Amino acid sequence: MGCYDCCMRCLGGVPYCSLVATLLCFSGIALFCGCGHQALTETERLIETYFARNLQDYITLAYIIQYFQYVIYGLASFFFLYCIALLAEGFYTTSAAKQTFGEFRSTMCGRCLSSSFIVTTYVLAVLWLLVFAFSALPVYFFYNMDATCRTIDILTETPASINQLCVDARQYGLLPWNAVPGKACGMTLSNVCKTREYRMTYNLYIAAFAGAGITLLALLTYTVSSTYNFAVLRYLGRKGIGARC
Question: InterPro entries attached here (predicted)?
Answer without folding.
Answer: Myelin_PLP, Myelin_PLP_CS
